[in-house]
Amino acid sequence: MSPTEPAPTVVLCAYTERRWDDLVAGLSSLRAQTVRPGEIILVVDHNPELERRAAAEFPDVLVVPNAGRRGLSGARNTAIELAKGEVVAFLDDDAVPEPDWLEQLLAGYRDPRVLAVGGSARPVWPDGERSPLLPAGGDGTGELDWVVGCTYTGQPTSETPVRNLMGCNMSFRREAFQLAGLFTEDLGRVGRTPLGCEETELCIRLHQASPGSVVLFRPEAVVRHRVTPDRLTWGYLRRRGWGEGVSKALVSRSVGADAALATERDYLSRVIPAALLRELGRLLRGRGSGALGVLALCLVVGSTAAGYARGKLSRRRLKLGAPPKLVHGPIHVATVDINRMPAQLPVPARAVGHYRAAQVLVRDGDRTLDVVLLPVRRGVVRLDLLGFGTPAAPAPKPDFERPLISVVIPTAHRKQQAVASVRAALAAGYPRLEILVVDNLPDGEPWLREEVEALGARYLVEPRKGVSVARNTGARESKGEFIAFVDENIRVEPGWFDAVAEEFVADPQVGCVTSMVLPASLETDAEVLFERLKGYSQHVRRQRLDRETVREDPLYPLSLARYGPGSCTTWRRSTFESLGGYDPLLGAGTPAMAGEDLDLFVRLARADGTVVYTPHAVARHTHRADWLELREQMRGYGVGLTAMLLLSVLRRPIGVFSILRRIPRGAARLAARTPELPLSDRAARSRLRQLRRDERSGMLSGPVALAKAWRRYRFGARSGHR
């Protein structure tokens, strides 16, 4: 892991005070790790007394209640929503990690394809000796040790990719949950009920959502897992096998039997027969342990098979885990700087209702550290548990000659917002700016020209409709070596131009720089739903994107849209002009309605260009607050996507095969971005389904819209208005 990335988050989930001593031991070991976690989150599963005790005893730990369904999966999902680390590691409340446990897990992420890393779990027996109910080979590892949550015979003994990880010792990149969703709350242990397979199902979904990704097993990352006496009985072996079989049946019905049972088939055909032969040999030699071993193997395998058969007959369907949800309802938007960060952030009262959460941008001066979603309780947000610690001495600002940057702001229906965008650019503190406002819907009123020129910006008129034409006009009239395209509904924050210019000056190969774009407000349901469905980039790591660095991404170059919208990007003039600018057939104001920014990204990728995403340049986007406007916007996105894809094929017919190859994976990612909303909120779920229908309806209209845009553009050219 890079030293600039946020330190990892470690999650523990607890439900009973009977494991208090184990919990204390685990937390003590985490504090002594060779690599310290950035934060520790303890989720208490519907036990208020345990929650109060833990909050009082562990002041350095974020103790929160399970906000989801009762059970381990719901508790884990609660922690994922709060975690700020780029890696989230999970540890059971009865497991104690070795001192280098976290260091060993993080070492597995050296390969960018690795999205999850897990380790081994070694049993701690009640009396210090292995139970005769769980047979073992000469190395001391048993074939049935999975029954008590430990590493078992048949698992790899060296670092290797695997299908899934063990729940008591696993970690994921935060990106994995964006791709595959959360843990399925229909699976997972509930109290002492021995169900499971939630981590198996999630890992399989991760493989399906990102076929090039790797789930890595590193046996060097070790935890000591305590085995309680109640798990060493014939009754528990039977119940655990039954629960495993039922869970495997549910998983196979959701993700397919081939994926769900591939490892198990090898285990049953190779590992179990070898174990039976060994135990039968012991029995024939007169060793009593052989009889117990044979009985245990038959009981567990038989119970698992019976549970699987019962699960296959069930009509129950899993509700697959959704991506991390953005809290439904108004969300306070704030920015804090760790150099002057209070312990608590007061949240203003609303005239109607109250805030349930706050989206907080955490900065260290002019550098972005993280974006976190925190609960609001009694009108405040606790910031003292974020875990950033005392800030280091501020790094000196890069010393370079600031180039001239031309800022092009097209405007049509929201001209007051365009004026606000000009003011924000001027307030960003950059010494060499040229600002051009392109009026794409002139109405004869002089007020816009007067306000723009009073601010020291240039006012241009482009009567031909379309944001692409307006941007191209502004670029043609500008003088800067670099051109920043900022839409009327976007306000850049102080330091934005410095962060962008720094990237261009440092690397002459960079053709485009994108930035972090956060919502200006999340007050209405429409704003919240848009942020969840189509919210712009919130990655907190700088990324350099070219053909080499993202060659494993199955959606490249379409995936470039994840790193910021074209409505807030900066281009090197030579690169922009070599690509021919924005295509006038696409974008707002044309029948195609959208797609112009992704089209330009795709053309840059095909020209082997380079994009840099910097989280240190932050801008705020004003989302559609009105429900009907949001519906039209979602339809426009659908229209623009298919129009852009069709135009791309018309330019380069051979590209149709590349597009067809990406459709299944793109559909999987689109499905994975569906927000999880409370089942009881029927109105919210209905609105969500409506937005998806609007988007699909727009996609069907894309080809016709592109034809209309072409006719209008061609007619305008013949009329002399091109």
From TrEMBL:
<dbReference type="InterPro" id="IPR001173">
    <property type="entry name" value="Glyco_trans_2-like"/>
</dbReference>
<dbReference type="Pfam" id="PF13641">
    <property type="entry name" value="Glyco_tranf_2_3"/>
</dbReference>
<feature type="domain" description="Glycosyltransferase 2-like">
    <location>
        <begin position="9"/>
        <end position="177"/>
    </location>
</feature>
<dbReference type="InterPro" id="IPR029044">
    <property type="entry name" value="Nucleotide-diphossugar_trans"/>
</dbReference>
<protein>
    <recommendedName>
        <fullName>Glycosyltransferase 2-like domain-containing protein</fullName>
    </recommendedName>
</protein>
<dbReference type="Pfam" id="PF00535">
    <property type="entry name" value="Glycos_transf_2"/>
</dbReference>
<dbReference type="InterPro" id="IPR050834">
    <property type="entry name" value="Glycosyltransf_2"/>
</dbReference>
